[in-house]
Amino acid sequence: MPQQAVIFDVDGVLVDSYQPHFQSWRQMLAEQGFEFTEAQFRATFGRTTRDIIRQLCGDQFPDQRVQAFDERKEALYRESVRHNFPAVDGAVELIDALAATGFAMAVGSSGPTENVTLTLDCLGRADSFAARVTGSDVTRGKPDPQVFLMAAERLGVDPQHCAVVEDAPAGVEAANRAHMLSIALTGTATRAQLAHADLIVDSLRELTPSTITQLLHHRST
Fold first, then answer.
1. Radius of gyration of the chain from Cα atoms?
2. Which of 11, 16, 167, 198 is catalytic?
């Protein structure tokens, strides 16, 4: 059997980061005189911070200023989760089960490298991931498939033998465009919003190595 891999998004999949991200966005933008609603946050979840700032603020700020906003927002986020890490239920168990059955694993996230490192360290599973691709590595954010294709390349696994676990519609679209098995976890988005995924689950505890293997095998036959 060919090598199989699972590529995990981070926010909303390994760490329940919804509220910490929302509050850090609100605080950073309030410091700049902007309001930020939860509806706006939901509509942009899963995209890079730089893309979101450009969407919200247009071209009124130079790149250097946008970069400073980005760094401030992410520092606020890390400060929040470092002291009260909200792991997604079942994440550690799924990682361990996949590792025990020989799956290769990678992270494919739009977030900063520092956020990904913090998450894996807090989970205590940094060594389980053979590859990491973050927002610092890519030039095009989700729904572009670049992040997942780069992760597969770094793992040395054909995209058709990769499954992606995502929570955002843009991430599911990116997985589909990469021709990978898309698995959507509800929570950040509804089932209706994630309907384009190959499989939708309400908990990571619904996923097992055998389930993922069967779905990957079915796609390749």
1. 17
2. 11
Share of the chain above pLDDT 70, in %: 98
Specify the fold of 18-83: DNA polymerase; domain 1 (1.10.150)
The Cα 21–Cα 9 span in angstroms is 15
Token pair for residue 132? 């990491």
Annotated domain spans of the chain: 5-16+86-220, 18-83
| C-beta of residue 92 within 8 angstroms of C-beta of residue 125 | yes
Is the predicted pLDDT of residue 47 greater than 80, yes or no? no
Is 11 marked active-site? yes
Topology of domain 5-16+86-220 in CATH is Rossmann fold (3.40.50)
Residue 48 has pLDDT above 90, yes or no: no
- Position 58 pLDDT exceeds 90: no
The model's pTM is 0.87
Reported as a pLDDT band with limits 50, 70 and 90, residue 124 is: very high
Residue of 9, 16, 70, 167 marked active site: 9
List, as own/partner pairs, every contact residues 48-57 make where C-beta atoms lie below 8 angstroms and the sequence separation is at least 24, other chains included.
48/110, 48/135, 48/138, 48/141, 49/73, 49/74, 49/111, 49/112, 49/135, 50/135, 50/141, 51/141, 52/25, 56/29
Respond yes or no: is residue 9 known to be catalytic. Answer: yes
Averaged over 76-100, what is the pLDDT?
96
